[in-house]
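Exercise 4. Each item below gives a protein and its sequence. For each, produce the structure-token representation.

Item: Xaa-Pro aminopeptidase (Mucilaginibacter xinganensis).
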Amino acid sequence: MNFLNRSLIVAALVCSTGMQAFSQAENAAQNLPTDYLTKEFHAGRRQALRDMMPANSVTAIFAYPERVFSKDVNYVYHANPDLYYFSGYKEPDAVLLVFKEMQTDGEGSYNEMIFVRHRDPAQEQWTGRRLGVAGVKAQLGFKRVYNSDEFEKFPIDLKKFKTILYDDLPDDASGSLKELVATFKSKGDIKDVDKRLLSDLNLISQRGTPKNIDRIMAYIRPRLDGEAYKNNPLIQELVAKPDSATLMDVKAKIDANPSGLALFEKATVELRGVKTPEELALLKKSVEISSIAHAEAMRAVKPQMSETELEGIMLYVHKHYGAEDEGYPPIVGAGGNGCILHYEENSATKVDNQLVLMDVGAEYHGYSADVTRTFPANGKFTDEQRVIYQAVYDAQEEVFKLCKEGVNYSSLETKTREVLSARLIGLGIIKDAKEVGKYYPHGVSHHLGLDVHDKGDYSGDLKAGMVITVEPGIYIPAGSPCDKKWWNIGVRIEDDVLIGKSQGTLLSIDAPRKWQDVEKTIAEKSIFDGGRLFPALK
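Answer:
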């Protein structure tokens, strides 16, 4: 790579910025994908947001900052999912304003505007094409578009609005984005707040239920020594009496006087939590690509392979089918490494005759899959591995039955713990159901979409159109207080499910799940079989 100031190194912009908004014909003519979300989709999402906003309000959504990877090189840029969702814009240094009511100035009427990164041919030669003002108007359908450096002098007084909705403001922004944020805070008289406290209050409001109050308290207790927490009456009320009645009282008080951040979170949770047909088309493709890749990894696995090599096989399949990226750092853990929930090193030089846990999901046009499979590198489960695998599989099957509209989200976790605890007790690994968290330390589900842990309602009932994961697991690291024959067995089976009116639809069906099918798939020939692609290193 040629040397250049890090502000210019954003290689991802070459292909991933404005291209998505061309018409299908234009994309085809330029040898680009033809299934990006359309400008009509994004306009519809803005109107849906506007319909939810309170009277006399404005919503501001900022681009994410660029982040340094190493010295003068940035990480590949990833757009703010909310900004992309509501605008289609995928570049840095931007802010979108959506107004509840029509506004009027000397140029006419408007109810939205966007300030974007300016065109710069010299920098674009290094970092890729930018849409600029003209491109955003033509390709994204906005009528009011300005360069970001015009925001400071733009004649708009945000203080006149009764409510300003906005997301967590980036505090590590630099350059143009830093100036945009500072101008916004000045124009709207936005005060600095303790972001962690606001996030926890929102967590209590959105996800707190009588069934998970212990988990909520365990999450916030490490921060209770902070000054903002000591001075917050709602937190202190809950700390003084952490029971379900107090929780519901605190939730009601939070909801009675919501901040602009809380209102933004509530609106985006509701909108992004239920996918539109356009989103489902992309999400289904992302999951299908991931599932095919998992099956191919099973066919290709050999005990002498490294964790990294298996990761590379999956990534190749993703790229073959057009996935731009992965939705999260791939997890490929053999043996004891599979007992580490977010093991990302993938550095073991041989997977040997061990179980391999692969949690890898493609990202296709911004939408992330999240699929996990666990399989024996030598092609056959041992008796102990098979028993644990079957326990996880059976828990998943029971949860699948609940994946339909009207079922409370929390019941998925209840059912998972019920099944896993009974199995672990039966195997003599635990003595009491309360111990299940020792070997099943995470939750069974999360929403899926533009973020791998997507926005969505975690405390209410499931709705048709939601896409969630179902991912029970059992992890028994070496040294656990049970028979040694169970040590270093880590099993997670994770699938992606579309919630329907009467039942869910398993989207990740192309990745084998039953242990018999897993063994059968491993025995099949892989496209990567037939000799090494490269000579051994000296």
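Check: The chain has three domains: 6-188, 195-258, 274-522.
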